[in-house]
Amino acid sequence: MSHTSTPSRTARVGGTAGKGFLIRLTVISTLGGLLFGYDTGVISGALLYMRDDLAMTTAQEAWVVSSLLFPGAAFGALLGGRIADWLGRKNSLIVCAIIFLVGALGCALAPNVALMVAARILLGFGVGAAAVACPLYLAEMAPAERRGRMVTINELMIVTGQMLAFAINALLAVTIEDTHVWRIMLGVAAIPAVVLLVGMFLLPESPRWFGARGRVDDARQVLTLSRSPEQVEVEVADIVATAKAEGDSRKHAWHALRDNRWMRRLLYIGFGLAAVQQATGINTVNYYAPSILTASGLGDQAALIATIGVGVTSVVMTILGIWLLGFVPRRVMLMIGFGGVVGSQLLLAFLFTLSQSDATSYTILAGMMLFVAFVQAFIGTGVWLMLSEIFPLAIRGLAMGLAVFVLWTVNALISFVFPQIVEGIGSTPTFLLFAAVNALSFVFVWRAVPETKGRSLERLEEDFRTQAIRTVPRRERLGA
Q1: With contact defined as beta carbons under 8 Å apart, do 32 and 133 qualify?
Q2: Looking at residues 94-114, what average pLDDT do you find?
Q3: How far apart are CA 105 and CA 15, in angstroms?
Q4: What digits encode the pLDDT tens for the residues 141-190?
Q5: In contact, 181 and 47? CB cutoff 8 Å
C-alpha cells in the first residue's frame, strides 16, 4: 500500500471549481441528515395534539415514538449498509429519499394509530439507511484534510432538522388552532425529501465504491472533480493498493470479519461508540422536552416555544464542534463531552428536586440546554465521524450498518423506557442513573477508542492492520 503522506492544508484541492463541487455535494447529500433530524424531532410537538386526536394511550404514544427507531431505523441501518455496498452510496441515498417522501405523506394522512405506526416504521427505515449511507458517502468523497468537517456537516444538518421541527411545531401551534395541526407538522418533511431525490441524481458515485469494483477509471474521473492531478494519482494508487490487499474479501464481508481479528476489534469499538452516544440520553430531550416542561408546570404552547432553545443550542454547539474538530483530537473531544454530560446530568437531577414553578421549568430548560451543548459539540460530531472512518473497506458498509443498528436499538430502548422509568422512580433518580452510565462511557473512550485524526482512509486501514494505531492493550498480541 502506498505510504504517500496526506496532502497539506495548503495544497490545491481542485481549485475553486473543486471547492464548489464539494459544497454542492455536501449540501445535497446531507439533506438526508436534515430529514433524519426533522422526522425524529417533530414527534415531540406533534404528540401533544396527536394523543387527543387519535385517542392514544400511554403505551400507544410510546409505540408511535419508538417504532421509527425500532424496528424502523434499526433495521434500516442494518440493511442500509448492505444496500450501500450493493447499489452504491449515491443510489442508496436516492432510495432513502423515496422512502422519506412516502413515509412523510403516510404519517400526515394516517387515520389511526396502527397506520401511523406502520408509516413511522417505513420512515424509520429511511432514517436508518440514510444514517449509514450519508456519512459513508461524505467520508469517501472528501479529501483527507477536509473529511472531518465534511462528514460532521451531516451532524449539523441533523440538529438543524431537529431545530426546524421544534420551530415549525411552535409556529403551527400558535397560528393554527386545530387538533389536526399535527398532520401538517409531519407532512412538511415531504418538501426536503423531494429536493434530496432530485439533487442526488446530479451527484456522482463514490470513488472508493468504484475502486472496490475495479472501476479505476470511473474512480479517477470522480476524484478529478475535487482534487488536483497530483492528488488524484496519489488517491487512485491508494485505492488500488487497498483493493489489491483485500482481494475478494470485500465481496464476503462476513468472511473478512471471521478471518481478521483486527477487523472484529474495530467492529466492537464501533458498537461501543454507537451505544455510548445514545446512552448519553440525548434523545430523551429531543423526543420528550415539551412533555418534561409541561410536567414541570408550563403550558403546551409555552413548552413548544421554549423547546426551540434546545434546537438552537444543538445547532450552535454542533458548529462549534465542527470547528474544534479541525485541531482537537477525536478522543479528547469525546472525553470532554462525557465529562460535561455527567456534570450536567447531576445538575438536572438536583433541579428536579426543586418545587414546581415557571422559574423551575426555565431553570430545568437551561440545564437541558447545557446537557445538549456538551453532547452536540463534543460527542455527536465525534462519534458519527469516527464511525465513518474506522472501518476497513472490505467491511465498511456492513460494519457501518451493524454499528448504526446498535445505535438505533439503544436509542429505541432508552426512548421507550424513559417515560416509564421517570414515572416509576422519578426524574432525579433517572438522571442520576444516566450520570453513572456516562461515567462508564468516559472510561470506555479513554481505554478503548483509537485516535483517527489526520490520516487518509487507506492509511488508517493499513495502520489498524499493522497496529501502527493500537486498538488493544500492548500486552495483547493481535491475531490475523
Answers
A1: yes
A2: 95
A3: 41
A4: 998 788 877 888 888 898 899 889 988 988 998 898 888 999 999 999 99
A5: no
Q: Please state whether the peptide bond connecting residue 71 to the residue before it is cis, i.e. omega within 30 degrees of 0.
A: yes
> b/e per residue, 32-62, with b = 16+ CB within 10 A?
bbbbbbbbbbbbbbbbbbbbeebebeeebbb
- Say whether pLDDT at 473 is over 70: no
pLDDT digits (tens, 9 = 90+) for 211-254: 988 899 999 999 999 998 998 999 999 888 877 766 554 556 77
What mean pLDDT do residues 327-341 have? 94
Widest CA span in the chain: 68
* 479: pLDDT strictly greater than 50: no
For residue 337, the one-letter residue type is: G
CA geometry: angle 38, 81, 314, nearest 5 deg: 30
Q: Residues 7, 11, 15, 17: what is their CA dihedral angle, to the nearest 10 degrees?
A: 30
Which pLDDT band, with edges at 50, 70 and 90, does 379 fall under?
very high
The C-alpha cell that represents 455 in the structure block: 490520516
Task: For residue 384, give every residue at least 6 positions away whose Cβ sits within 8 Å of its Cβ, in sequence order, or none.
Answer: 135, 151, 152, 154, 155, 277
Taken in order 98, 100, 101, 107, the sign of the CA dihedral is positive
Computed over every residue of the chain, the mean pLDDT equals: 86
